[in-house]
């Protein structure tokens, strides 16, 4: 059964609501195992065991969270050649701007030669029903593409 790894930094109620919507979206896809790891505890073994990854972060001062950057720093060299072509998606939540975080993640995943299977989801402000549905759709899209 394909395994989807969700690596996330979830420090706020808004990010928790988004993470729950992601779980719900993956649950809509049959025959996919969901593994959820906080970015500060996820590592190379988690990534190497996954068939795809969904990355979630708040936008902090125009960039991804330090926790997600730490994850990338930890897995970059151990996983660089072994994860070429890994399907991935990303969601970013910010109060006013997510562009820097999205761009930073794109540069790193590009360097790792991963395959983006869904457009990045940028959420600004409190996530309402439409935004949470977009999170479910993102998660399901990534899960289907494993």
CATH class: Alpha Beta
- In CATH terms, the superfamily is Flavodoxin domain
What would the CATH topology be? Answer: Rossmann fold
Averaging pLDDT over every residue, what do you get?
97
Secondary-structure element order, as H and E?
EHEHEEHEHEEH
Total count of domains: 1
Count of separate DSSP helical elements: 5
**Kindly, what is the distance between the CA atoms of the first and last residues, rounded to a whole number of angstroms?**
10 Å
Radius of gyration: 14 Å
Helix content: 40-55%
Q: Count of DSSP E strands?
A: 7
Shape: globular
Strand fraction equals: 25-35%
Largest sheet entry: 7 strands, mixed
Structural class: alpha/beta
**Uncertain stretches:** none
CATH architecture term: 3-Layer(aba) Sandwich
Short description:
This protein has 146 residues and is of the alpha/beta class.
Describe the fold and architecture.
The chain is of the alpha/beta class. The protein has one domain: Rossmann fold (3-Layer(aba) Sandwich). It contains five helices and seven strands, in the order βαβαββαβαββα. Strands 1, 2, 3, 4, 5, 6 and 7 form a seven-stranded mixed β-sheet that branches. Helix 1 (13-27) crosses helix 5. The model has no long low-confidence stretch (mean pLDDT 97).
Core attributes:
146 residues, alpha/beta, Rossmann fold, seven-stranded mixed β-sheet, 5 helices, 43% helix, globular
In terms of topology, how is this protein built?
Blueprint: E1 3-8, H1 13-27, E2 33-38, H2 44-48, E3 52-60, E4 63-64, H3 66-79, E5 87-94, H4 99-111, E6 115-116, E7 121-124, H5 129-144
Parallel strand pairs: 1-2, 1-3, 3-5, 5-6, 5-7
Antiparallel strand pairs: 3-4
Helix pairs in contact: 1-5
